Structures are given as structure tokens and as C-alpha cells.
Amino acid sequence: MPRRSQSEMAILGGLSMQPMTAYALREAIKDVLGHFWSESFGQIYPALSQLEQQGLVTRSHASRPGSSAYSVTPAGLERLRELLSEPVVETPPRHGLLLRLFFGRILGPGQCRELLLTARAKAERRIAEYEAIERKVREEDAGSPDLPYVLITLSSGIHGSRAQIEWATEALALLGDQTSAGNHPPRPKESQP
Predict the structure, then answer these.
(1) Which of 24, 50, 106, 188: CA 20 to 30 A from 138?
(2) Does residue 154 sit within a domain?
(3) Per residue in 53-100, pLDDT tens?
(4) What element of type H or E holds 191?
(5) Is the residue at 49 inside a domain?
């Protein structure tokens, strides 16, 4: 599925929950979906315009002068169902931490250890964030038909973060073995005159 279609999915999905201005939509995507999806203003505004031209969203004047609220139309909901029904296309990962660790021999065990400690601490903070969001959502959205689906995505974040902590702990133990064996980063070869 092309990126454009996935942007449509995020925008139509957000508007299916409630009408919003473009700014509120971006903030909702950032705050609610931001743990697993992102859209920039540069993607949202043109997409909204195109979706409006296609009759998939409608625009009405918002309470603030100069701003418009967008709502999904029945045709937009049908398009959203179509997009959601398409097979998931995985994008190749780009994981900067793993790239550095793969070449860790050059970096050295000490710097690799720092990277892993930082990754583990970030995962611990993410768990706390996800759990706080979960408590808030359970309280504020009790009875909402969207609640089980929101909780599913939060659960994924919590489980992924726990796995990250377990992996980082295991990797730190492997590095401990490397340090005790006296492995150090290689020295650059001196050039011959």
C-alpha cells in the first residue's frame, strides 16, 4: 500500500472518530497515533484537500474565524473500510540503534553499553507513558465502541517496550562477556609512507 493510501487511512480514521480541524487532526494523530504512526502538516493539508475534492470529507466553518472543521462522509467511511481491508504492507525497518550495534566492534563495548542503557531507560519510560494513557483512556472513554481497539494498540506498545527491556538486558550481559574477554575496538591501520 503506497504511503499516500496509508496517510488517507490515518486521516479518514481520525475523522471517523469525530470532526476536527486540520490542526486538531494533526495533534490527534501525533498524540494518539504517535506511538506507531506520524503525519506532518505537509501531508495532512494536501490530503484533506484531495479527500474533499473526492467527496470523502466535507468542510464546515469552525467556531474560530478562518478555520474549518472536517467530517468524514459516508463515501469516506466506505473508502476507509476498503483501505483497512487491504493487506498490510511492511516497510523495511530503519533502526539506528541496531545499525550501530551491528558495527559495535568499531564503537567498542563501552559506547555500546551506553546505547543499550539508554534504549532500556527509554523503553521503561514508554511503558510508564503507555500505562498512564491506558488509565486515562479507560476512564474517559469507558463505553466507547473504540475503546477495545485503542487498548489493543496500547497493549502492543507495552509488550514491545517490555521486550525491548528484556533484549537490552540480555545484550548488556553479552557485552559484559566481551569486556571481560578484553575485547577493545580495533585501532586504525597506519598508512605506509
Answers:
(1) 24
(2) yes
(3) 999 999 987 666 667 899 999 999 999 999 999 988 787 778 899 999
(4) none
(5) yes
CA angle 123, 120, 168 (to 5 degrees): 120
One domain for residues 7 and 74 = yes
- For residue 179, the tally of other CB atoms under 10 A from its CB is 14
Buried (b) or exposed (e) across 24-36, using 16+ Cβ within 10 A?
bbbebbeeeeebe
Are 130 and 107 within one domain? Answer: yes
Three-state DSSP at 93 gives coil
Where in the sequence is the domain holding 79, given as residue range(s)?
3-85
Q: Is pTM beyond 0.85 here? A: no
**Dist. CA 58–CA 52, nearest whole Å:** 6
Radius of gyration of the chain (CA): 23
The string of pLDDT tens digits covering residues 103-146 is 999 999 999 999 999 999 999 999 999 999 999 999 998 999 99
- Within this chain, do residues 51 and 115 fall inside the same structural domain, yes or no? no
